[in-house]
Structure formats: C-alpha cells, structure tokens
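Appendix B, record 7
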Amino acid sequence: MALTIGMAFFKGAMVHTMRKALPYIQPIGSWLMVLAGAYIIFYWLTIGGLL
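Structure tokens (predicted):
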C-alpha cells in the first residue's frame, strides 16, 4: 500500500529519472544478455556434456 501511494505522489519524478537513465540502461542490458548467452553456450560445451 505504501508503494502504491508513493508511486502516486512521485510518479512524475520517477518517470523523469527513468527517461533520463534509459539511454544508458538499454545498451547495458543488451550486453548483459550477450554475456549471459555466451555463458550458457560455454556451459553447454564444457560442463553440460554437449561435446
């Protein structure tokens, strides 16, 4: 309930902060997805017994 009330009062500030951070978050998230995929492939090829 407190989170909902807080979002109602500070929605404008949250939206402004998120829009300001979005150009930095998207590339970082993309690179983290690539790294996670590389780790999964590495795991399959070594420990997972695919080879």
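Remarks on this record: The chain has one helix and no strands. The chain has one domain: 1-51.
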